[in-house]
Write a structure and sequence with these properties.
The complex is a heterodimer of chains A (about 325) and B (about 475). Chain A contains 1 helix and 28 strands. Chain A is mostly beta strands and about 325 residues long. In chain A, strand 10 and strand 11 form a beta hairpin. Chain A is globular and about 65 Å long. Among the domains of chain B are: about 160 residues, Beta-Lactamase, CATH 3.30.450; about 160 residues, 2-Layer Sandwich (Heat Shock Protein 90), CATH 3.30.565. In chain B, helix 6 runs antiparallel to helix 7 and helix 9 packs antiparallel against helix 10. Helix content of chain B is about 55%, strand content about 15%. Chain B is an alpha+beta fold and about 475 residues long. Chain B has 10 helices and 11 strands. Classes of the chains: A mainly beta (about 325), B alpha+beta (about 475). Chains A and B meet through loops of A and loops of B. Chain B: Its EC number is 2.7.13.3.
Chain lengths: ~325, ~475
Amino acid sequence: MRKILDLLFLSWILVACSDNSYNSIDSSTDFVASLNTLDSSIDFISKDQEVIETWKLDAAYTGFTLVLNDYIFLYGYSLDRAELIQLSTGKKITSFPVHEGTTFAYAVEDTIYVANGKENTVTSFDIKGNEIAKADAGRYPMSMIADEQYLYVVNFKDTLMSVFSLGDLKLDRTWNIPTSSHGLYLNGDELWLGGHGAGSQPNKVIRKYNLVSGELQGEIEAPMMPIDFTDTSDGNIFTVSHGSNNVSEFSKDGELLSSIKVGANPFSIKAFEDCIVVAGYDDHQVYFLQNGKIIEKLKVGKGPFQLVTREVSK
Amino acid sequence: MKKLSFKIWMLLLVFIATTIVFLVIFTNFLYEELYVQDTENSMKEVAKNLQSTYKGGVVTDDFIKQTEEFNRFSNIEVFTVRNPRELSACLPFEIDYDSLIGAEERAELIAGNSVTKRGFESRFDRDVVSVIFPLVDENRLEGIIYVYVPLTKITELASKDILFLVISVSLLLIAMAYISFKSLQKVLTPLAKLKEASISMAAGNYSTRVEVKSQDEVGELALTFNKMAASIQEEDKKKRDFLSVVSHELRTPISYIKGYGEAFEQHLIQEEKKAEIYTLIVREANRMQKLTNDLLTVARSENVDEVEIGPIILAEAIREVLQLVKPIADEKEITFKVKLDEETILSADEQKTKQIFINILENAIRYSPNQSTIRIENETTKKDTTIKIKDEGCGMEAEHLPHITERFYRVNKARSRFDGGTGLGLSIALQLVTVQRGKLAFTSEIGKGTTVYLTLPIWEDTFL
């Protein structure tokens, strides 16, 4: 009997500990975090370009997003729950009853939009995990971005863009895009769209669409497979092309300013402090760029797939 | 016989067929393994050479052209791929595209290792052996050199020879079947002959013999069979001879008795001759009685089980026997000179031993002249004693000596039955000596007499 009690006590401690398994990140700390999908970990890197914390994750998470600057929303394609973890405490706050097939999450203030590639839906949740609204999308909704009014959803295995109203997820309009599109950037009244390319043909352009009409307004030639965007304070737009391992800088008009080789198979790019940060999925390194040059590279966990930044001061 | 040969033949055939099938499969396996292995090695060599010409950076059109040029001179298919979609670069994303390499292969290639695959490749819609070498620059998988050979080509190569293989294997099988059948026949034919000979023997044809050709076990068996057949034939002949002699010996006294009986019936006998004829009839009846008694003794003396060995004082036994033969010795005024060791004790059956002495002495008396002497002596060794009985009779030629113990053997055929013997005396003596593990030997000299040497074991307690 004593043994059973000991065992129960131990189990309780373990369960309690697992709830508290992550080290907290101070609210005042700026960081760029990389989600490493091959070994299920998150590396937090300070503006001094040092890894300040590493979280070993307990499940096969495939993506994450920052919510209200103090929460990390973690999801996985094969998982039927998503977790909201408070950075300042390191505690799991809420488990979201998402369904298997989560492909992407996008937070607008305290609302989290979750795309599901199995059910082909987009669902919005409040921070407590309550479902607010749900809408049908095209085949395999994934990449998302929002302006003040609308949520723009790229259907990865479909040839259409779905535009929902932010509050009730009512489908407002759709327009045609190529399949395997990924990576969005809002540039004034234009929506820039990247992608991998259909079939064996790799995509080599960034498409510019009119935000309102969805009309294709032009194509910008870019290195192979541009799939993520970021911008800097000077208004220039950076894109990462994973097919040719390039980071390219464009003016707001779409003029190519510079391009350099960075990392091996990079999927994610973020502006952080006065640097551009790129994650190399195949070489497991995070690169810091300044003035078109690599100024630092850091070894992180295996398969850094996605980057998230927090700049409290901004 | 046929069944056995058929079984052995079938067994041989099964063994041969199994061996051939196994060899064919094994050869095929080896051929494929070695050939595929060899192909794989040469493919690696090609890919390695091409890889060494890669100088880093983006894979150029020239490089791709160079690898494609290679195809013109080789039966190995080579191509270079730099399309990231083919290289599974988009892998964390779910891609509706069947890329040339998978996630694990990509990881291997990025690490700088080559990948070898065998199996179905949907891209080529056939089984292939492929070798993939990476073109890596600073951890970036810029491209791959893909070398492959359709596996079917190898099996196609083998299938060309399949008809030839099937024909040659079938021919080999038929040849082996024929050879084994013939060899088996050669081995088993003597057995068949032996069987026929046995049947012939069983039917009473004792002159049957088997022709012995081989020196092996079957040959030895045939030889043994022939020896056995010879023994049986000899025994059969002896039996026939014996029966013919017995019937002849019995017929003579019966003819006498019958003849004189009929003469009496027809009153042809004169009164003064009657007493003589009665004596003759009684003598012939006695002879018949003695003959039948001797025949019974012959039949019984072959039975070793009836021998009762015990201690017998030799001198005493001889004296008792001499008393028995004295009447017939006295008729011819024959005297005995006995010089025996009084302490000799025989280890023998008393009745049988006395019978031996009686038969030998009767014989000696029968062939000794009147007023002669018969000497009886003995000489003892450690284990046995030899009793020497020497008469002064007519003696006989040496050629008769080996036969005188044969039943109804007569040295002088003409004298036949007039000497009063049955022709079985010495034969019975020899049988009785043999069952007591003794020996009987003779020496003789014409006109001087015959000596009988009777050796019998002595009672070993004698010396204690």
